Q: What sequence folds into this?
């Protein structure tokens, strides 16, 4: 059935063809936006990148071999909020075409061998349940086994509440894996993208050797209102942005997405990774 406009006159623009930039309000062609790595060509707003596209932005063409794609979350608590967790998982798989909120594998980045993990915000807000934690831990263990550097691209609303304490345990598990990378002297680069918060920010997203952030990304442990209520102090504006975190030492550098791959490659080479 052909698309119709609301008034019923003539064909409408198929949904998804055009998008509006949330920062400058400019209407953009989705394809044009994607070609520009999901960065608004008018105002440089760094939009969210689907995990699979991010893998393609960073891994050299044809080099990425995915691992643990078959791992699927279960519903250990029989959790129901607005809808049952099992249904939520099913919907997320259908929407994203991914099995979980992180994609992990081995690949090359500008010719450098890496273990790569990329989170996908479109999959239940990039939340970390047991499978996300397990996949990331395995990606780090793969780095250890192959003596490769680890590159982690983060975006997450935090631990996945639908798995309760099992999600929180992933913070300890992934953090322990980060420590093993450090003991082995293997570089671990973290890319902080919009948004990276809560249990993820409080574990592997803050344990890298170098923290690279994208411009204007939101990052932090919890929301500004909750912090203000807890410490009973007004917080400075924009205190959870990449720029503020850079000024205060939590972020090492801010990198435009167009330069991200080249910057990561340069950092890896500086840290001793060889082709
Ligand atoms: Zn814009």
A:
């Amino acid at each position: 059935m052909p698309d119709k406009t609301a008034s019923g006159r003539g064909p409408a623009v198929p949904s998804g063809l055009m998008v509006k930039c949330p920062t400058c309000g400019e209407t953009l062609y989705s394809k044009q936006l994607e070609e520009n790595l999901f960065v608004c060509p008018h105002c440089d707003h760094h939009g969210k990148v689907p995990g699979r596209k991010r893998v393609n932005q960073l891994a050299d063409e044809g080099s990425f071999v995915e691992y643990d794609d078959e791992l699927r979350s279960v519903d250990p608590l029989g959790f129901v909020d607005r809808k049952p967790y099992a249904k939520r998982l099913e919907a997320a798989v259908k929407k994203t075409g991914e099995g979980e909120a992180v994609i992990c594998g081995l690949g090359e980045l500008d010719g450098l061998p890496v273990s790569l993990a990329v989170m996908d915000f479109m999959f239940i807000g990039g939340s970390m349940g047991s499978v996300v934690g397990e996949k990331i831990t395995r990606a780090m263990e793969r780095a250890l086994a192959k003596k490769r550097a680890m590159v982690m691209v983060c975006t997450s609303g935090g631990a996945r509440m639908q798995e309760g304490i099992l999600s929180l345990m992933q913070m300890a598990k992934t953090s322990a894996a980060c420590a093993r990378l450090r003991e082995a002297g293997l570089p671990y680069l973290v890319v902080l993208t919009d948004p990276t918060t809560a249990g993820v920010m409080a574990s592997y997203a803050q344990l890298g050797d170098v923290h690279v952030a994208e411009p204007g990304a939101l990052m932090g442990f919890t929301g500004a209102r909750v912090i203000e209520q807890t410490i009973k102090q007004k917080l400075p504006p924009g205190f959870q942005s990449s720029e503020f975190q850079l000024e205060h030492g939590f972020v090492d550098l801010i990198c435009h997405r167009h330069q991200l791959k080249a910057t990561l490659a340069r950092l890896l080479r500086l840290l001793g990774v060889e082709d």
About this structure: The chain has two domains: 1-45, 48-270. The first helix runs from residue 30 to 35. The radius of gyration is 19 Å.
